[in-house]
Amino acid sequence: MGQVAGSQRRAPRAVLKFGSSVLRSPADLPWAVQEIYAHVRRGERVVAVVSAFAGRTDALYAAAREHGDCERATAALVAGGELESTALLTLALERAGVPARLLEARAVSLATRGPVLDAEPAGVDVAPFEAALRAGRVVVFPGFCGVGEDGATTLLGRGGSDLTALFLAEHLDARCVLVKDVDGLYERDPALPGPRPRRYARATWEEALRVGGKVVQPKTLHTARLAGRALEIRAIGASGYTRVGGELSCLEPAAAPRRLRVALLGLGTVGGGVYERLLGRPDLFEVVGAVVRDPARHAARGMPAALLATGVWSALAREPDVVVEALGGVDPAAEWLQAALLAGCRVVTANKAALAAHYDTFAPFLQGAAPRLRASAAVGGAVPMLETLARLAGETRVVGLRGVVNGTCNYVLDRLAAGVALDAAVREAQSAGYAEPDPGFDLSGRDAAHKLSLLVRALDRTAASFAVAGIDADTPAREAAARAAGRRLKLVATWDERGARVALEALAADDWLAGATAEENRLELQGADGRVERVHGRGAGRAPTATAVIADLLDFAADGERAAAAASAAA
Fold first, then answer.
1. How much is the pTM?
2. What's the pLDDT at 1?
């Protein structure tokens, strides 16, 4: 999963607050990552404000009371709960391919005033936030904590993380989004028996204070009203939400939630990762089938035998809403992709080879505001290359692109630069899960060429010429020569109106692409208006690819919610 950095127009910003209702334990971290990634791939810069895991704050308060009554020491101890969850979320983002930076209250001089255990934020140095956001990194920040006038740690009391998010949103000129375990404010508690209540699309401050006491701390709502700062209340994976602020309240028609029925084609590295994620959200997804070569082997590992099948038609007979193709290669993947689409299913794929080989066949399904085929993970894993390209192309003509788009090759070249022999570097890449048992497809440059082809075709363009060369036996000598000249050897995919190529290039050390390390991917886009857009992140591995696939599934779920809401409104 990656992040975007642009050279001119400032990207929109969002401060997302994750409380203990959604971060109950470390097991919930992947879904917080998923929500952050949804905003990242829409082109937003994100600051994630994090509460402690459920029960952690109470446990630390109890531990403090057991040993004494010093407020300063209590604040220092309790603040550790937020720092723990913040650090773990930062690690989870990096693992999923999203560049992230952890900042603490002292690093940004988050000053507070008032009692040590119930203070209010009073000032902040936004420069560290600005630097991290300009570099295309998600900032992860512990809520609830600050620094008092005497330099001691302070706490912001009940609802403190919400206050932190609201305060930072105001100073960073960002949207404030409170991520909860419910997708907004309702006219009554939706967990209670009876007819499903209606959700507020918009709520005035007064209405939010009347109905939202269990969802948002009144202290936060009062503070937001006094500041005239609107906020949003959302749930992870939900498209609907409530916007609090304004002069009028508006209720939406009641609509029963519906799970997305998913069939998986393949349960290997990517498919298995997606399956594990889907099992974690039974409220959103129902896995209705999985096509594998050896059902008995998967059943022996605990997969329900009733879900397993050996052919695409068996899976389609179970009437899935969405088919996830995770087979890899061209055959039979391309045929099965087409079968699912022709059967009326929506499809998610990470298969760049099948798409590149049959692009004209699949192009009609990739187009439009609500496409039937989504393939974000096919180019860059969780680095939102196709999304960034589409946004820029919607605003200006794209005249060129260049990128490091194969994580395996970049990892191998990095290891060569560290003095490792070519064969050993490839084995390390395989051990780390970045290279296949047969790494030839990556090392030859063909994988990068497929990605480049998909990027160019997404612009509805073609290349006048297309040359491809990758890593070979001469590469170590070329790398040594580049290093001696103060340059860095990278496998660069390039397209402009003269043609396309994938080739090793000795880049100047200050070239942005030269900064790609290990399995990182980077893409630089050039607009006709002079704008340069950049996106980067980890592009190889199970977690980044699964993150992008789940994001496509959530987009399909959102399409369904919007269609249902429109039908309900029309009725």
1. 0.92
2. 42
